[in-house]
Amino acid sequence: MAASRESTVPYEIPADGAAPVRAGIPEHGRVPKYYWLKARLVPLLEELGEGGLLPTERELALRYEVSRETVRQALRELLLEGRLRRAGRGTVVAGPKLAQPLALASYTEGVRRQGRVPGRTLIGLTRHPCPAPLAADLGTAPGEPVWHLERVLFADDERVGLESTYIAVARVPDLEADFDPDSSFYAYLRDRLGIRFGRAEERLETVLATPREALLVGTPPGLPMLLIHRRSLDTAGAPLERVRLLYRGDRFSFTVRLGE
């Protein structure tokens, strides 16, 4: 059965009328064919389990009597949602997303709490004059030396993000010699230098990765990413660091605890 992305099919609405709202099914009960297929693939993913190999596009097209373009569109959405991931030449069921808290805690601590193994790969640790727009955030004068630490973030050997940290050389003069780039930067500041974080300001937005970022993180350039801009202060209220954190939108979600 040939089908285009725009064709629609009826979708059976349960008697209570509530489930279609939660599932994204409009009241008239008709959905694009790729969405109809996507809804039917979800139970298959649950049956296969994490790491399970998905049948080929051809096999899925024959099984559900749809076109291969309909299959591709359904798989694209499941990939973007993080339910599937590419593995070699095939597609497998992805594990649950990492739920990172929006709090003053290191990436290492957040990943370990979820039973995953954190890791980092150093892209670069450079020292250069501080540009004027960054000086106020770091509590230093324009032109004073600052460190730029850039690392790829891993969880269980899977690339999940990119971390870019700026900090004044005056705060951590021996960073290049003393710091293990595979370890937690927060732990280094706390345990080696006695510097503790007091509070931070964060801004979260969605972006598309640049070609360079997509190459480093190992994702297609069109994959939505979660970007966090963070400015941290120490317990005395002095500026400490400016961080740019880029996370894969298909592998991360964020949590925050609210109170009165």
Mean pLDDT reading: 83
Spatial arrangement of strands, main beta sheet: 6-7-8-11-10-9
Distance between the termini: 56 Å
* CATH architecture call of the largest domain: 3-Layer(aba) Sandwich
CATH domain class name of the largest domain:
Alpha Beta
- Tally of structural domains: 2
Radius of gyration: 23 Å
Main beta sheet strand tally, sense and closure: 6 strands, antiparallel
CATH homologous superfamily (4th level) name of the largest domain: Chorismate lyase-like
Write the H/E string, N to C.
EHEHHHEEEHEHEEHHEHEEE
Taking pLDDT < 50 over at least 5 consecutive residues as the criterion, the unreliable ranges are 1-6, 13-22
CATH structural fold name of the largest domain = Chorismate lyase
Helix content: 25-40%
| Beta strands, count | 12
Shape category = elongated
**Treating each run of at least 4 consecutive H or I residues as one helix, how many helices?**
9
**Binned strand content:** 25-35%
Description of the molecule:
With 260 residues, this protein is an alpha+beta fold. The chain has 2 domains: 8-93, Winged helix-like DNA-binding domain superfamily/Winged helix DNA-binding domain (Arc Repressor Mutant, subunit A, Orthogonal Bundle), CATH 1.10.10.10; 98-255, Chorismate lyase-like (Chorismate lyase). 29% of the residues lie in helices and 34% in strands. The strands form 4 sheets. It has a 6-stranded antiparallel beta sheet. Strands 1-2 form a two-stranded antiparallel sheet. Helix 2 crosses helix 4 (68-80) and helix 3 crosses helix 4. The longest helix is centred in the N-terminal third of the chain and has 16 residues, at 33-48. The protein is elongated. The chain starts with 7 loop residues before the first strand and ends in a 5-residue tail after the last strand.
